[in-house]
């Protein structure tokens, strides 16, 4: 079995309910097991930590019971997002989804909760829990990774922060800090949003490959973070370290007006979804295949907005689409009743060749400035506000911050 086949298997078993958008931080390495080296895979259900039913102008998320509607009645919050920052065109007057007023929607946890709520949602509303965890498990309660040291950041430095897309619901994102010895609340993270450096993001290519003879990590019975993964460090299980020079600069659209906390900077998701109903979910739109000639290359006009360039890992394709989440909408614990009856128009999983080509073999990297905070241990929260759905995708990592003149060993 080749490396790509192994990757495919890991992805398939990690994706349980993918009508909802999925994305996660992978640099610094996430507490859920994601690293930059695994940019085209989603190990251990790492994309299944999020917040469901979270809409602007409400004090709490409604969870699965409010579906895709507002989480509260009589909200006075108006959309604040400029039109040129929209990714789906959903943020007009009366819109409720998180990206329409970046950062203002509540969350259940700044590190996400397993499956998005404590109860199973209807198809496309909520999700399945990551392997080894029950629905509603608080991501903020996950301990730091046991098999890899936290990144060390120096005050004042510009450092890498990155995330990857499994299912693309547009919107935009921000990174935030909270001291590790403080309660991991949204308020704590909101007090220290990280500033982006420059007006460029980067597409970082890191194809996922195992080192020769390395075992495929299994799903621990109690969940990834409850085990001691002795073979987890990337230098042990990957064929080579991720080449951080293998990245391509793309324009970044930054926003600090109409955001929350007031004046904090957010970045628009630079990858356009498909210009089709559901953005490409259920393999509807942006059809691709690893079989040459099966489909014509997807033109720029078939995306929600102009893609930022070519996808160097998928020859002939642009940086756009729904991602491999397009392939598993009919692979949920509770499936839509009309799955797999519409040919290639709606409610379908992908064939093996289509699944392989839907995988984004890269991450989105930004430079962020390490703020002047007391040296010590911190938690980084990644927050991705969705535009297409009332969901906030969040996950957390650990870092150690040291003074600018300290020597890092």
What does this molecule look like?
- There is one protein chain.
- It contains 4 helices and 13 strands.
- It is globular, with a radius of gyration of 20 Å.
- It starts with a helix and ends in a 7-residue tail after the last strand.
- With 409 residues, the chain is mainly β.
- It has one domain.
- The strands form 2 sheets. Strands 2, 3, 4, 6, 9, 10, 12 and 13 form an 8-stranded mixed sheet that branches. A 5-stranded antiparallel sheet has the order 1-5-11-7-8, with no helix packed on it.
- The longest helix has 12 residues.
Chart the SSEs and their pairings:
Layout: H1 3-14, E1 22-27, E2 49-52, E3 113-114, E4 151-154, E5 158-167, E6 172-179, H2 186-190, E7 200-205, H3 234-237, E8 247-251, E9 254-255, E10 266-268, H4 352-358, E11 362-369, E12 376-385, E13 391-402
Parallel strand pairs: 4-13
Antiparallel strand pairs: 1-5, 2-3, 2-13, 5-11, 6-10, 6-12, 7-8, 7-11, 9-10, 12-13
Total helical segments: 4
Give the integer mean of the pLDDT values: 86
Radius of gyration using CA atoms only: 20 Å
Number of strands: 13
Structural class: mainly beta
Shape: globular
Please give the domain count. 1
Describe the main β-sheet briefly: 8 strands, mixed
């Amino acid at each position: 079995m080749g490396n790509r086949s192994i990757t495919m298997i890991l992805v398939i078993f990690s994706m349980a309910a993918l009508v909802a958008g999925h994305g996660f931080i992978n640099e610094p390495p996430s507490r859920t097991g994601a690293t930059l080296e695994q940019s085209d895979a989603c190990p251990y259900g790492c994309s299944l930590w999020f917040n469901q039913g979270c809409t602007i102008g409400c004090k709490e998320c409604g969870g699965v019971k409010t579906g895709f509607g507002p989480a509260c009645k009589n909200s006075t919050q108006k959309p604040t997002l400029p039109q040129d920052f929209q990714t789906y065109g959903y943020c007009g007057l009366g819109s409720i989804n998180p990206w329409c007023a970046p950062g203002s929607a509540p969350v259940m946890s700044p590190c996400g909760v397993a499956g998005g709520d404590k109860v199973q949602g209807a198809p496309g509303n909520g999700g399945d829990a990551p392997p080894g965890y029950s629905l509603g498990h608080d991501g903020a309660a996950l301990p730091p990774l046991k098999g890899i040291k936290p990144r060390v950041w120096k005050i004042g430095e510009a450092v890498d922060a990155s995330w990857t897309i499994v299912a693309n619901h547009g919107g935009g994102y921000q990174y935030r800090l909270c001291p590790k010895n403080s309660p991991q609340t949204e308020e704590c993270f909101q007090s220290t949003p990280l500033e982006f450096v420059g007006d460029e993001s980067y597409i970082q290519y890191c194809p996922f490959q195992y080192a020769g003879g390395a075992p495929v990590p299994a799903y621990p019975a109690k969940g990834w973070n409850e085990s001691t993964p002795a073979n987890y460090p990337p230098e042990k299980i990957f064929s080579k370290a991720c080449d951080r020079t293998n990245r391509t600069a793309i324009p970044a659209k930054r926003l600090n007006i109409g955001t929350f906390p007031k004046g904090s900077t957010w970045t628009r998701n630079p990858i356009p979804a498909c210009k089709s109903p559901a953005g490409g979910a259920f393999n509807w739109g942006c059809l691709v295949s690893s079989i040459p000639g099966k489909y014509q290359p997807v033109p720029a006009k078939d995306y929600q907005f102009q893609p930022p360039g070519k996808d160097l890992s998928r020859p002939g394709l642009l940086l756009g689409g729904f991602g491999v989440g397009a392939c598993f909408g009919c692979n949920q614990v509770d499936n839509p009743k009309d799955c797999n009856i519409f040919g290639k128009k709606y409610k379908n999983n992908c064939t093996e060749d289509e699944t392989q080509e839907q995988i984004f073999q890269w991450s989105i990297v930004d430079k962020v400035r390490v703020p002047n905070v007391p040296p010590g241990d911190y938690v980084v929260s990644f927050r991705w506000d969705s535009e297409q759905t009332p969901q906030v995708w969040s996950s957390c990592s650990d870092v150690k911050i040291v003074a600018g003149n300290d020597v890092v060993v």
